């Protein structure tokens, strides 16, 4: 374009249409309208002082359309997008669904005007990288976004924006361009999330009640304990709380996922499984299973994810400390916050198979006590991971739906502590070749367990196989029911019923995908199998059938209260006719939920005789002195592990059985009204009576009520037997609907007393 030399000439050029210009202002050389307008306007501003030609000046100013404001219509948009819960100033919307913005202009919008909405994601967004979208009304962008004019009313223009249902999730900056003017609204950031309400989004979930639970519910329950005694830990996910969404956005940026990967919940969930643990990447939570939690918060003491994510976002440093249910709770928060349906999944007697051979080898000494040191494999009393809901576009059809993801740092996958997404259906069918980490997840829920007794023969350790259990691993896979406060068993989603033909066929199929022996196992550890020369084992073991019909049962005969003797029994049964002499060995140990043994409490060794189909109960009693010291010296909640080995002298039949049991505690009672109204204070009292016959030392009560009060800790000191304590808090509800209050009591002796109570907040 030819530049005009002086204001006077500019005036002349514009008014008489010089040879260089075709009114209303298209440059004959480059056909650019915008820059010409700008230079003309600038020049004429000066020129008007000189020539006093008001009519021309007015006309040109009118031509230059400017944006004076943008209203993101937050309350209307967020209600429609199910994002009104987020405690954040900016607009939060879900992809693939229209939202509206009201643009205020300097004058009426005309057909000839050029209005463009620009959405930029990431640092220095660029069109050719797909990080800058430039949208004009009624024209679909090749990225699948479109805008349209809904209504023009005077100087206001209502626009509808529809993002693509596979747009990258994250924070977008909106600029509005009119001609050469660019308007940058204050707080013009829009958070774009996955959309389970949108049929074209791969996270689409048809059922409304399920979306309500798996996306919108900000409280929930995590199941822990043992297969024998499952209990719930209330957990506040708090995905809508202040800074939680920003923490998730920070994690997305930190993940270094490409824009294309940010479109796909499979990539995003894998990245989040890595980032929720601190390993490799200074992620959210540092795991600690040592029993020593100095310098941080004991994993037992969290009652929700909010404090953790807020602290992480503020400091950008790993928060200390987590164990599996904490990792899982935080991962649920992150996934729900990003819009991916997600749930916590607890598996009891869950295997941690270090060499990807789908079996767990357990070594016992000749007293029947478990030896920790011989195997890197372990069986956790429970392990908590997550299911995330999505359609997998990266693998063959048939594996969409729930995908297991796990942020507890157990084993590396592709060089990082990350796990999943692994299709739950692939686990059930034994299709363990599918990405990601299906062999590991398969073993977690369905490994076979093989018992070995280690005996010294001529001064050397020899290994004697005493039993194979094909039904021991992966029990009572549990999650919270949709819309209800109860546990639901989802074991059948992960595997066929134990004992069924299909379950063994799935195992057979899974075995067929194992690496040939001799290749490097996943963890880099040497295979214990090779060490004991067990390569002659049948490929897929079956549950042994004994000639005597030998059967073992382990139970407690009295409630297991800390401070009381632990009264348990081993029942030996035979079902075949004949006289049977049975050597029974039993042991009782205290262990962490990871299967790590903390103390040996006692053993029994007896020879009994049974005639035909009959049974005998052998008591196993442990005095309080034997375990109370261990109980108060460890900072974890411990479980009681009883192992029994029976051997029939006449037939050489051998059988092993183990059961983990949990101590039983007195409850916390919460007293408060069932309903309350917004911003009206009410009182909430927490009452605890120490019904045990031991003093609970150094008691702390932790309480939190999302939308009611922030997390609070009461220091209660020592609580003597029989004493009742009552702590009160004044509550001010700030949000409507069903809310929950969660309370937890911890002491030197007991870590696991918790409760929750719901309240309905009305207007
Ligand atoms: Ca990590
Ligand atoms: Ca193994
Ligand atoms: Ca099995």
| Biggest pleated sheet | 6 strands, mixed
Please give the alpha-carbon distance between the first and last residues.
Answer: 63 Å
- Low-pLDDT windows of residues: 1-31, 44-62, 518-538
Q: State mean pLDDT (0 to 100 scale).
A: 88
CATH topology of the largest domain: Coagulation Factor XIII, Chain A, domain 2
Percent in strands? 35-45%
Small molecules bound: calcium ion
Number of helices: 15
* Secondary structure category: alpha+beta
Percent helix: 10-25%
Number of DSSP strand runs: 40
The H-level CATH homologous superfamily of the largest domain, spelled out, is: Transglutaminase-like
Instruction: Count structural domains.
Output: 5
CATH architecture of the largest domain: Alpha-Beta Complex
Cα shape: globular
Q: Quick one: CATH class of the largest domain? A: Alpha Beta
The radius of gyration over CA amounts to: 33 Å
Pfam family, one: Transglut_core
Cofactor: Ca(2+)
Active site: 324, 383, 406
InterPro entries: Ig-like_fold (IPR013783), Ig_E-set (IPR014756), Papain-like_cys_pep_sf (IPR038765), Transglutaminase (IPR050779), Transglutaminase-like (IPR002931), Transglutaminase-like_sf (IPR036985), Transglutaminase_animal (IPR023608), Transglutaminase_AS (IPR013808)
What is this structure's SSE topology?
Blueprint: H1 7-16, E1 21-22, E2 26-27, H2 34-51, H3 54-63, E3 67-71, H4 74-80, E4 91-94, E5 98-105, E6 115-121, E7 132-135, E8 146-153, E9 156-162, E10 170-178, E11 181-183, E12 189-193, H5 208-216, E13 219-226, E14 229-236, H6 244-255, H7 265-275, E15 285-287, H8 306-315, E16 319-322, H9 324-338, E17 342-352, E18 359-364, E19 378-390, E20 401-405, E21 422-423, H10 424-429, H11 438-446, E22 448-457, E23 460-469, E24 475-480, E25 487-489, H12 491-494, H13 501-512, H14 528-532, E26 551-556, E27 566-574, E28 579-591, E29 597-611, E30 614-622, H15 628-633, E31 639-648, E32 654-662, E33 668-671, E34 675-677, E35 682-689, E36 696-705, E37 709-719, E38 724-731, E39 737-746, E40 753-762
Parallel strand pairs: 4-12, 15-16, 18-22, 34-40
Antiparallel strand pairs: 1-2, 3-5, 5-9, 6-7, 6-10, 8-9, 10-11, 10-12, 13-14, 17-19, 17-24, 19-20, 20-21, 22-23, 24-25, 26-27, 27-30, 28-29, 28-31, 31-32, 33-35, 35-38, 36-37, 36-39, 39-40
Bound molecules: calcium ion (3 copies).
């Amino acid at each position: 374009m030819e530049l005009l030399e002086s204001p006077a000439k500019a005036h002349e050029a514009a008014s008489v249409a010089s040879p260089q210009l075709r009114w209303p202002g298209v440059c004959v050389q480059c056909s650019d309208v915008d820059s010409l307008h700008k230079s003309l306007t600038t020049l004429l501003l000066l020129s008007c002082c000189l020539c006093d030609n008001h009519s021309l000046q007015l006309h040109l100013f009118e031509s230059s359309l400017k944006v004076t404001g943008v209203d993101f219509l937050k309350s209307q948009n967020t209600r429609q997008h199910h994002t009104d819960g987020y405690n954040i100033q900016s607009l939060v919307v879900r992809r693939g669904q229209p939202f509206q913005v009201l643009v205020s202009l300097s004058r009426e919008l005309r057909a000839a005007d050029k209005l463009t909405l620009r959405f930029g994601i990431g640092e220095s967004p660029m069109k050719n990288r797909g990080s800058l979208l430039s949208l004009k009304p009624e024209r679909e962008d090749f990225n699948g976004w479109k805008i349209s004019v809904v209504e023009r009313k005077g100087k206001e223009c209502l626009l509808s924006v529809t993002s693509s249902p596979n747009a990258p999730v994250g924070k977008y900056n909106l600029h509005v361009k009119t001609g050469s003017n660019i308007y940058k609204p204050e707080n013009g950031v829009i958070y774009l999330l996955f959309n389970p309400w949108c049929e074209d989004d791969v996270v689409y979930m048809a059922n409304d009640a399920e979306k309500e639970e798996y996306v919108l519910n900000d409280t929930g329950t995590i199941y822990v304990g043992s297969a024998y005694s499952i209990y719930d830990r209330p957990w506040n996910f708090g995905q809508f709380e202040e800074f939680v969404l920003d923490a998730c956005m920070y994690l997305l940026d930190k993940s270094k996922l490409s824009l294309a990967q940010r479109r796909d919940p499979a990539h995003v969930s894998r990245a989040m499984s890595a980032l929720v643990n601190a390993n490799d990447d200074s992620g959210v939570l540092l795991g600690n299973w040592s029993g020593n939690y100095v310098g941080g918060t004991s994993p037992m003491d969290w009652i929700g994810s909010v404090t953790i994510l807020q602290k992480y976002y503020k400091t950008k440093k790993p928060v200390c400390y987590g164990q599996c249910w904490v990792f899982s709770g935080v991962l649920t928060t992150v996934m729900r916050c990003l819009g991916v349906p997600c749930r916590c999944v607890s598996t009891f007697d869950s295997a941690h198979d270090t060499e990807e051979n789908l079996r767990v080898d357990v070594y016992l000494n000749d007293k029947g006590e478990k030896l920790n040191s011989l195997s890197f494999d372990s069986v956790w009393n429970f392990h908590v991971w997550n299911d995330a809901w999505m359609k997998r576009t990266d693998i063959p059809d048939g594996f969409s739906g729930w995908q297991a993801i796990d942020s507890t740092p157990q084993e590396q996958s592709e060089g990082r502590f990350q796990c999943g997404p692994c299709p739950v259906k692939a686990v059930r069918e034994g299709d363990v070749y599918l990405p990601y980490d299906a062999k590991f997840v398969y073993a977690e829920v369905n490994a076979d367990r093989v018992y070995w007794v280690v005996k010294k023969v001529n001064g050397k350790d020899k290994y004697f196989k005493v039993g194979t259990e094909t039904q021991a691993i992966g029990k009572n896979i549990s999650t919270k029911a949709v819309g209800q406060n109860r546990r639901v068993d989802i074991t059948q989603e992960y595997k066929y019923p134990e004992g069924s033909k299909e379950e063994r066929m799935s195992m057979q199929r899974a075995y067929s995908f194992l690496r040939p022996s001799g290749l490097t196992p996943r963890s880099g550890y040497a295979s214990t199998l090779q060490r004991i020369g067990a390569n002659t084992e049948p490929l897929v073991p079956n549950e042994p059938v004994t000639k005597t019909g030998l059967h073992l049962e382990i139970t407690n005969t009295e409630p297991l209260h800390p401070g009381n003797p632990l009264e348990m029994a081993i029942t030996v049964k035979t079902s075949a006719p004949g006289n049977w002499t049975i050597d029974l060995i039993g042991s009782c140990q205290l262990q962490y939920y990871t299967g790590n043994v903390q103390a040996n409490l006692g053993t029994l060794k007896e020879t009994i005789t049974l005639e035909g189909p009959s049974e005998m109960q052998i008591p196993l009693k442990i005095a309080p002195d034997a375990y109370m010291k261990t109980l108060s010296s460890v900072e974890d909640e411990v479980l009681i592990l009883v192992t029994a080995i029976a051997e029939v002298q006449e037939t050489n039949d051998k059988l092993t059985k183990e059961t983990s049991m949990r101590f039983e505690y007195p409850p916390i009672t919460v007293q408060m009204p069932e309903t309350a109204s917004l911003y009206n204070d009410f009182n909430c009292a927490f009452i605890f009576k120490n019904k045990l016959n031991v003093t609970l030392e150094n008691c702390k009560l932790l309480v939190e009520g999302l939308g009611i009060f922030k997390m609070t800790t009461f220091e209660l000191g020592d609580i003597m037997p029989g004493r009742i304590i009552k702590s009160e808090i004044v509550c001010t509800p700030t949000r409507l609907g069903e809310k929950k209050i969660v309370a937890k009591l911890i002491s030197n002796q007991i870590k696991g007393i918790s409760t929750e109570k719901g309240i309905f907040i009305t207007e």
